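Regression test case RT-17, inverse folding.

Input:
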């Protein structure tokens, strides 16, 4: 029997999209949700309710830099065998 390359203890992160207020065109900004508070992102932003309209045409998408940096640091730490750092 061969071992699965996927670590069953690996950390999974949930993503949350919101309309990007910094861009005029319809655009989404993706955040990473904290493990202990589903209403907060790793960058500290309070996450609101989903858009009431599902008909919005999105022309662009981007990822929150601070959220992605936190995930990258957590993954690097986990791969080196150290305890996962507290994020969020």
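Golden output:
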């Amino acid at each position: 029997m061969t071992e699965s390359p996927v670590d069953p203890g690996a950390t999974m992160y949930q993503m949350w999209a919101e309309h990007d207020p910094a861009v005029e065109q319809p655009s989404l900004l993706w955040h990473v949700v904290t493990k202990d508070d589903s209403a907060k992102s790793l960058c500290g932003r309070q996450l609101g309710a989903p858009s009431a309209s599902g008909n919005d045409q999105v022309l662009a998408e981007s990822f929150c830099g601070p959220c992605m940096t936190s995930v990258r640091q957590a993954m690097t730490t986990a791969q080196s065998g150290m305890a996962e750092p507290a994020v969020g």
